[in-house]
C-alpha cells in the first residue's frame, strides 16, 4: 500500500515572490492535466527549494547546486515522467552553474524554473551572482548563447497571468519532447532584497511587443542586450525553437541493456587483476 501525504503549508515570509511561482506551477499542472503521480518536482537548496513540498506531486530535495544532474537522471530513467526542476539563483547560478551550461547543451526534455531574487534568501541575504550592483550574470543571455537551447523565458512573480502562460508553455515544450524548457522568474525576497518596486519599473514585456520574433535567436540576443543597455529587463517568451539536428543524443538507461555479457566479462577481468 502507498502512503500519501498532503502538500505542506509554505514557510515563506508574507509577500515572498516564491508564492507566485508556486501558484503558477499548481495552475500549470492543472492546465496540462497531468496526474500528480506522474509528476516529479525536484528542488535545490534555499527558500525556493521548499516549493517541492507544497505541490502534492512526487518531490525530491536535491543537494545544493545539483538539481539539474538529478533531474536529468530522473528524466532519462523515465522519459514519460513530467520532470520539473526548481531552485534559486544561488543554487542554480553559483554552485550549480556548471550544470546549467551543460544542461542547455544537452537539451533534455524537462522544465527548470529558477526563482531569481538576487540573493541567498535562506542564509540571510548574501549576494548571489545576479545581485544588482555587482558584476552579475544574465542566464537568459547565457542560454541564448548555447546553440542547442530550445526554450528560454522569463516571468515576474507579480505578473500572474503571464507567469501562468509561460509555465504552461514551458511544461508543454518539455512534455512534447522538444527539449529543456528554461524559465527564470524574477521572484523578490521582501526580507533581504525587496526588488519589487525597482523591477516593476525596469520590466519590458516582449509578449506584447508585435515587433518581437521569439523564433529568431540572433534577434532575441540583440534585443536582450540592447534592453540591458537601457537598464530594462526583458520578460516573456524570449526564445523557442525546434531541437537542432546536431542535438546531443543522450543514452537512455531505461531502454538500454544494463547487463550486457561483454561488460560483465570486462568487469571480471578487471577484478581479477586486483586478486592476483
Ligand atoms: C553544500 C551546501 N553549501 C551551502 C549551503 C548553505 N545554503 C543554504 S541555502 C543557500 C543558498 C540559497 O540561495 P538561493 O538558491 O538563491 O535560494 P533562495 O533562498 O534565495 O530562494 C546556501 C548557500 C548548503 N545548504 N549546502
Ligand atoms: S527570506 Fe526572502 S526568499 Fe526567503 S522566504 Fe523570506 S522573502 Fe522569501
Ligand atoms: Mg535566491
What would your notes on this structure say?
By secondary structure, the chain is α/β, with parallel strands linked by helices. The chain has a single domain (18-275), classed as Rossmann fold, CATH 3.40.50. The chain is built from nine helices and ten strands. The protein has helices at 18-31, 67-77, 89-95, 97-106, 139-145, 160-175, 196-202, 217-229, 261-275, and strands at residues 39-43, 58-61, 82-88, 111-116, 119-120, 126-127, 151-156, 181-186, 203-205, 233-240. An eight-stranded mixed sheet has the order 2-1-3-4-8-7-10-9, with helices on both faces. A two-stranded antiparallel sheet has the order 5-6. β7, α6 and β8 (181-186) form a beta-alpha-beta unit. The longest helix is centred in the middle third of the chain and has 16 residues, at 160-175. The radius of gyration is 20 Å and the shape is globular. The model has no long low-confidence stretch (mean pLDDT 93).
Using brief descriptors, characterize the structure shown.
Rossmann fold, alpha/beta, binds iron/sulfur cluster, eight-stranded mixed β-sheet, binds thiamine diphosphate, two-stranded antiparallel ribbon, 9 helices, binds magnesium ion, about 280 residues
The CATH architecture term is 3-Layer(aba) Sandwich
Q: Beta-sheet strand percentage?
A: 15-25%
Q: What topology, given as strand order, has the largest sheet?
A: 2-1-3-4-8-7-10-9
How far from one another are the termini? Answer: 49 Å
pLDDT averaged over residues = 93
Which compounds are bound in this model?
Answer: thiamine diphosphate, iron/sulfur cluster, magnesium ion
Q: Helix coverage percent of residues?
A: 25-40%
Number of helices: 9
